[in-house]
Design goal:
Pfam family, one: Phage_holin_3_6
Radius of gyration: 31 Å
Shape: rod-shaped
Structural class: mainly alpha
Largest sheet: none
Keywords: Membrane, Transmembrane, Transmembrane helix
InterPro entries: Phage_holin_3_6
Number of helices: 3
Number of domains: 1
Protein name: Phage holin family protein
Distance between the termini: 24 Å
Organism: Streptomyces carminius
Helix content: over 70%
Oligomer: single chain
Order of helices and strands: HHH
Number of strands: 0
Strand content: under 5%
Length: about 140
């Protein structure tokens, strides 16, 4: 039976109408989930960029600091040790500092991983599970 507004009452919708409505809702849902995925991927990209920038900045600063201080450190140590031993000690210290900076940069890059939109995927699975549950009822 049709109501005055041209729609049927809830129990009188045809299967075709219900399928068309479900298809439209699924399309809208997929579009929204894809937008969420794009937003999430952009955020992960920013984190990866920040981590990479920090690694690059750390390497540049370490390189400049090494150049500025290495001659002074070797010269200072050569007062008490031979020059070759002074240079070797300074080199070991510099490698330790570089290792620490690399570990910090690696941690930032790992925060951006995995490079998939986990929240959007989880949301789509939840949506599909909800739809399956409603169809079964």
């Amino acid at each position: 039976m049709h109501r005055m507004d041209g729609h049927r009452s809830g129990s009188e919708h045809s299967v075709g109408e219900l399928v068309a409505r479900a298809t439209a809702q699924m399309s809208q849902l997929v579009r929204e989930e894809m937008q969420l995925a794009r937003t999430e991927m952009a955020e992960k990209g920013k984190r990866a960029g920040l981590g990479g920038g920090l690694l690059g900045g750390a390497a540049t600063v370490a390189f400049l600091a090494v150049q500025a201080g290495i001659a002074s450190a070797i010269a200072g140590l050569s007062v008490v040790w031979p020059v070759w031993l002074s240079a070797l000690v300074v080199m070991v210290v510099l490698f330790l500092v570089a290792g620490l900076l690399a570990l910090l940069g690696r941690q930032e890059v790992r925060k951006a991983a995995p490079v998939k939109p986990e929240g959007a995927i989880r949301g789509m699975h939840e949506d599909f599970d909800e739809i399956r549950g409603r169809v079964r009822r």
